[in-house]
Write a structure and sequence with these properties.
The chain is built from 6 helices and 13 strands. It is α+β, with helices and mostly antiparallel strands and 307 residues long. Helices cover 25% and strands 27% of the residues. 31% of the residues are buried. It has helices at 6-26, 93-98, 100-108, 110-129, 167-177, 202-210, and strands at 38-41, 46-53, 73-81, 83-92, 147-149, 152-157, 194-197, 232-235, 250-253, 260-265, 270-276, 281-295, 301-304. The chain has one domain (7-57, 73-304): phage-related protein like fold (Alpha-Beta Complex). The longest helix has 21 residues, at 6-26. Strands 1, 4, 10, 11 and 12 form a 5-stranded mixed β-sheet that branches. Strands 8-7-9-13 form a 4-stranded mixed β-sheet, covered by helices on one side. A two-stranded antiparallel sheet has the order 2-3. The chain starts with 5 loop residues before the first helix and ends with a strand.
């Protein structure tokens, strides 16, 4: 009569865990981070992202005068390091053999995938949360009023606002995009496409953007906030939010640019499993390899800490 060996049980368990894990990884779910990052696949551990110094202005040429030749220059290098983000779980031989379906489902499936996704959400959100204190590649905070330009000695880029979202602040932020310069001090082609906020600010944002009259005012002034450079609203519950003071940072993004927040990836979500014979347990490690950061300092977003 045919018997079942321990190796057979291991093969069956592996197949079951693998299937459950794959189903959980492909399950539709609400994800916040994809709408606020630019994904950059990179096989190397470190990715380098440089700002290119722009050419100076064209000049009127006087007869037989020498032409001015500008060279292409690189500066403001941002380095993003790819890390391994992992989570492990295990099930004892007894628990798996006597309760295979539930152990596999509740340990190696949805909870394991969810832990990896939540970690990525927090890492991406913290890239935004930290722009007011994190130093960028140009030597100033990532959200600052004094981003230096490589080829202009006096002009700067200013991507820092202050205060709560309001009609005036939305207008100020949109206008700020009109004073963003390239590295030679010429106007840079950029405008806001999205407003990124905590979900608790959604009602306030929609009042400001969608009211027929100017929101938060006792007047009959027509609301034209969305008539110029209309923006879409993005929410992310992983952004910082102080429940005591109702303060949260907010951001205006130009999602058409190759600038702002980058998610540098190497491969996708993976699962490795093995038997630990010393303790008679089946172990699974789910992992991803990625890194995140803000590139091209002074471009891609304007931010306010919310107060």
């Amino acid at each position: 009569m045919a018997g079942t060996r321990m190796s057979d049980i291991g093969a069956l368990i592996y197949a079951g865990i693998d299937a459950v894990f794959e189903r959980a990884a492909k399950k539709p779910r609400r994800l916040y981070y994809p709408s606020v990052v630019t994904v950059k696949p990179n096989k190397k551990r470190e990715g380098w992202y440089d700002t290119i110094g722009n050419l100076g202005p064209a000049e009127i040429h006087n007869e037989e005068d020498p032409i001015t030749y500008d060279k292409i220059e690189y500066n403001n290098r941002t380095t993003i390091t790819t890390n391994v983000i992992a989570k492990g779980v295990k099930g004892s031989m007894e628990s798996i053999e006597f309760d295979l379906e539930n152990v596999v489902k509740h340990q190696f499936g949805e909870p394991l995938v969810k832990a990896l996704i939540q970690k990525k959400e927090r890492i991406i959100a913290d890239v935004y949360n930290d722009v007011f204190s994190a130093t960028g590649a140009d030597g100033v905070a990532q959200a600052a009023s004094n981003h230096p330009l490589m080829n202009h000695p006096t002009k700067v880029n200013d991507n820092l606002l202050s205060g709560e979202i309001s009609p005036d602040k939305i207008i100020e932020g949109k206008n700020r995009f009109n004073a963003i310069y390239d590295q030679s001090g010429e106007f840079f082609d950029t405008e806001p496409t999205h407003l990124l906020i905590h979900p608790n600010k959604m009602f306030l944002a929609l009042q400001i953007l969608n009211s027929n009259l100017m929101a938060l005012e006792l007047s009959n002034t027509k609301n034209v906030v969305q008539d110029v450079m209309p923006i879409k609203v993005l929410v992310n519950k992983y952004l910082d939010y102080d429940y005591a003071t109702d303060v949260s940072p907010w951001f205006m993004l130009d999602r058409t640019l190759d600038a702002g927040c980058v998610l540098q990836t190497k491969g996708g979500l993976n699962l490795n499993t093995e038997w630990d014979w010393d303790i008679l347990a089946y172990k699974g490690v789910a992992y991803e390899m990625y890194g995140a950061g803000m590139i091209a300092p002074g471009y891609g977003f304007i931010a306010s800490p919310g107060s």
